[in-house]
Amino acid sequence: MSTMRTVQTRADRRSALVLAAYRHIAARGFEGLRTREVAAEVGVNIATLHYYFPTKEKLIEGVVEHAMRRFQSTLEPHGTSADQLRNYLRAVRRLVQDEPELGAVMGELMLRSSRDPTLAGTMEQMYEVWHRTVRGLLKRAVKEGHMRPDADSDEVAAIIVATLTGVSLPSAGGRPDLAMRQLERWLGIGAAPRRPSQATD
Amino acid sequence: MSTMRTVQTRADRRSALVLAAYRHIAARGFEGLRTREVAAEVGVNIATLHYYFPTKEKLIEGVVEHAMRRFQSTLEPHGTSADQLRNYLRAVRRLVQDEPELGAVMGELMLRSSRDPTLAGTMEQMYEVWHRTVRGLLKRAVKEGHMRPDADSDEVAAIIVATLTGVSLPSAGGRPDLAMRQLERWLGIGAAPRRPSQATD
Amino acid sequence: MSTMRTVQTRADRRSALVLAAYRHIAARGFEGLRTREVAAEVGVNIATLHYYFPTKEKLIEGVVEHAMRRFQSTLEPHGTSADQLRNYLRAVRRLVQDEPELGAVMGELMLRSSRDPTLAGTMEQMYEVWHRTVRGLLKRAVKEGHMRPDADSDEVAAIIVATLTGVSLPSAGGRPDLAMRQLERWLGIGAAPRRPSQATD
Amino acid sequence: MSTMRTVQTRADRRSALVLAAYRHIAARGFEGLRTREVAAEVGVNIATLHYYFPTKEKLIEGVVEHAMRRFQSTLEPHGTSADQLRNYLRAVRRLVQDEPELGAVMGELMLRSSRDPTLAGTMEQMYEVWHRTVRGLLKRAVKEGHMRPDADSDEVAAIIVATLTGVSLPSAGGRPDLAMRQLERWLGIGAAPRRPSQATD
DNA sequence: AATGAATGAGAGTTCATTCAT
DNA sequence: AATGAATGAACTCTCATTCAT
Questions:
Q1: Residue numbers of A between 88 and 127 with CB closer than 8 Å to B
Q2: C12-55 pLDDT, tens per residue?
Q3: Span B182-201, pLDDT tens digits
């Protein structure tokens, strides 16, 4: 038992540090990420942070993994109903709405990817998965007759991904929910009910 | 001819510094903006930079102005033909394609705006102008019979702005041109020719 | 006429700069003396200041001269009455009371003199003059029968100078007027009236 | 013996830094205080100095405390003989004579106190204690019959403090020991022997 | 006689990282 | 596994001084 707790604790501390860094990046950007503050938030010494993550870069890698996992979890469409596509779009929207940190961090990662080849690879891969997922959903919706056949294409997947991207950024301005509504309309899947709490725009 | 002398005027040096900072932000983000490097790129002493911009923050304000001006210039649709809307969309796309720094800097500003109230105001205003411009173009296209009447709405403007935003970021991944093509298709304005050099995706 | 005015102007500007520096030293110490602020206060460019005073050190020399002149003017006892000594003590006290800058600057100079041999010489000379002046007054007072003969000595002159020094500093604390009163009492010259406005302590 | 190890404890390093700063202020004034030089004198990196004192101002506060403690230690008259007052005056004089830095630093603090309210408070308090201490000694000396009764007053205390102040400054000029001798004479406590080494003037 | 523009040298401060314990 | 102490390198910003005009 006691072994399990200790092991658990080690992983706990690691992910506590990652989570703190994740929040710091969301709140102040890479620009404002300070290892000392991250350590302080978790309540450990700065040297302890370096025990778990030898360099700041390694800590950031941890944040990347975390953000990806967080995002990917929604990318895998769950639920099996015929209107999976609509559910999916809404799930993505809801995710960044409920956890605005995610949008902020994804934005930071996106910008950073042009300077960091490794990150660029990760992001590209993520986009690829995303694109394929959406395209798969489109095909299925068409096959099951929930959508007009002309909608099935890379191009529609591309615009969906682009819109979701634009809509997920913590932008001052932009009208995310209006955009989402129109997207559903164009896709011909706009009918079904929306969360009451989302009524705002 | 007297205008063509090589002597640096005050304004020249100011904008040279702003431009260098602009490029640095595009290349390395706010995270990597170093006043000394900016000064070095222009070929002046760091103290000279501070002669023109008392603080780093003031220099950044200069960059914000520059980026806004650069962007806004395209936001005002020029050309008066009936297919203004298509031209407009393509102009925006071409702008960030020909000058990728702009997309990068706009992305940085967008993220920064959540931490900087002044910048937030500027961005919000810019989005507002952008949204209205697009909506105006939509209305006009409908009135002149180039578009179906049901398309005229805030929602279409919103998705256009969101897509253009998503498409302008220097993302590793994403398929900007596919998305743009589908956007034109949905708007029913996809006919006209495109620049050959843009055929890539 | 116009020649006279020009000549006058040059000297004016010099002494305006010295006076501004004098005030700055009084207000913020040598620690806080900034040539740019001095120039700004006079309303000229920093380069103009350097036209009149090639270095900051030269400007400070100007301030030293000014302060010395300001102080020495009172050191020469004017008035010829029998109670010159009392008048003299009060004149010194009144001087630094009416122009607190003088005490502050003299204090700064005193401290600086341990680091600046030239200034040390100047100060030493000033103290010498001061001491002799006071001793002369003492002797005369004794001779004219206003004071007990045993009081005539270097030692009394020394304590007078020391007290006046201690009393002239812009010290937070200390009770200058009480000290002055006791000094007069010990010298046996305390009778005569004092300025009403000085009643405070 | 375990006490005698050479290892620097936290407190040691702190006070080593304060002491170095104290000496620097004495030698070059606030004007010439450089954190880097202070750190170098102690043999540590500048960052280490900032580990102990987050800002230069905090370091200066440390110096103020040190100087006050150094001074106050003498202000408390020790020794219980009947001629405490004379011993006290001489102790003060000897203190600044043996450690001229103290006079210099006190002078710097005095001047600075007009610009720094916190310091002003500290200095005022110190003067208050000083004044009361001297007055207490005077009263006692009178009561025990070592002094004429008319001498017991705030005014005598004030002139003693003023003289000691004037005499303690590192002035180029002034005749501190003459002044002190006359002070003792006026107080009627001049008899007793003086340290041979002090015979100079 | 006066100035705008420019600079070298250096100031205080910060930060990721290391190391002995 | 954890920490206090220490550091090198770099950062933004300042200031007296210079120079072409």
A1: 104, 107-108, 110-115, 119-121, 123-127
A2: 999 999 999 999 999 999 999 999 999 999 999 999 999 999 99
A3: 999 999 887 655 445 444 44
Closest CB to C178: pick one of D28, D154, D174. D154
Within 8 A of D108 by CB-CB distance, chain C residues are 111
The third-level CATH classification (topology) of the domain covering B7-192 is: Tetracycline Repressor; domain 2 (1.10.357)
pTM for the structure as a whole: 0.91
End-to-end CA distance of chain D: 45
Other CB atoms within 10 Å distance of the CB of residue B133: 17
Interval D8-55: pLDDT, tens: 688 899 999 999 999 999 999 999 999 999 999 999 999 999 999 999
Distance CA A166, CA A95 (A): 14
Residue whose CA is minimally distant from E2 C1' = C48
Q: Specify the pLDDT at position C82.
A: 61
CATH code for C2-192?
1.10.357.10
Q: Are B166 and A162 in contact (CB under 8 A)?
A: yes
State the number of CA atoms in the 13 A half-sphere of A29 facing the CB.
21
Interface membership of C150 toward D (CB under 8 Å): no
Task: Tell which of C101, C132, C155 to mutate to test the D interface (max D CBs under 10 Å).
Answer: C155
Q: How far is the CA of D48 from the C1' of F7 (A)?
A: 7
CA distance B124 to chain A (A): 4
CATH code linked to domain D2-193: 1.10.357.10
Q: How far is CA D158 from CA C134, C182, D129, D151, in A?
A: 21, 8, 12, 12
Domain boundaries, given as residue ranges, for chain B: 7-192
